[in-house]
Amino acid sequence: MMTKSKGILFLFALILVIFGSCTDRSREFSFEGHTVLLDTVNAAKDPVQEEIIQGYRESLEADMNRVLVYSEHVMERGTPEGTLNNFVADLVFDLGQQIYQPQDGKPIDFCLLNYGGLRVPLPEGEITYGRVFELLPFENEMVVITLSGEKTYELFEYLASSSKGMPVSGIELVISDESPESILIQGQQFDRSRNYKVLTSDYLAGGGDSMNFFLQPINYELLGKRVRDAIILQMQNIHAKGEKISAELDQRISYSQ
């Protein structure tokens, strides 16, 4: 059996060996390598797997190329408003109002989405499913946020100072010197003493695009539907009625004269 003194000497010797090896430059290693492009790995394709994948690819392409609806004219983003901004915000707001079941009995007041979330314009004529996926490629969920009057005013300050026209529905905002001059919500003057319900995306509700006024909500309610799905469903309804989609500029966001 090792005595206490021998044990101490052994531990001391072990420490010397460990630290000595850590400082021994002769024990360092070097490695060399080269870049291998991912598309060169396993370049040989399995014919069975390729046949299975091709079947899915053809089915997906067929779905994406199906006509969803027809548009009367080209729709594009714009600032302070654009036809595409207005069209998307209106469709999302309309569906949100239909599916929202408030526990307090109070409806949604207005809708706010983000300019950067609209990725491509909509052409005149055929609008395919694939085009809608290009327009809205993100999996954003629809959310109803209840804000205090103070936070709602911060929202309008954000809109007034933004260099991009945000898609909105249910409001009329007049901007003067990058500040709100006049605010109407559902045709009524903005009231800082009351709360407002805003339909938006979960991305913005989490403070995306520096929308920090959403970070202190009075209430947060997921609607269980993606923004893109709302657009597709509304387009399907329009097409089923034999109508075409369209949008116009209506001064919902404007600059003071």
Based on DSSP secondary structure assignment, what is the total number of beta strands?
A: 11
Strand order of the largest sheet: 5-2-9-4-10
The rounded Rg comes to: 29 Å
Based on CA inertia axes, which overall geometry fits?
Answer: globular
Structural class, by secondary structure, is: alpha+beta
CATH superfamily assignment? 5'-Nucleotidase, C-terminal domain
In DSSP terms (H or I, runs of 4 or more residues), the helix count works out at 7
Largest sheet: 5 strands, mixed
How does CATH name the architecture? Alpha-Beta Complex
Residue share in β-strands: 15-25%
What is the rounded distance between the termini?
Answer: 97 Å
CATH class annotation: Alpha Beta
Average of per-residue pLDDT values: 86
**Strand-and-helix sequence, N→C?**
HHEHEEHEHEEEEEHEHE
Low-confidence stretches: 1-27
Q: How many separate domains make up the residues?
A: 1
Q: What is the helical fraction, as a range of percent?
A: 25-40%
CATH topology title: 5'-nucleotidase,  domain 2
How do the strands and helices of this protein lay out in sequence?
Layout: H1 4-22, H2 47-64, E1 67-71, H3 83-99, E2 110-112, E3 125-128, H4 129-135, E4 141-147, H5 149-161, E5 168-169, E6 171-176, E7 179-185, E8 188-189, E9 196-201, H6 202-205, E10 219-226, H7 227-240, E11 253-255
Parallel strand pairs: 2-9, 6-11
Antiparallel strand pairs: 1-3, 2-5, 4-9, 4-10, 6-7, 7-8
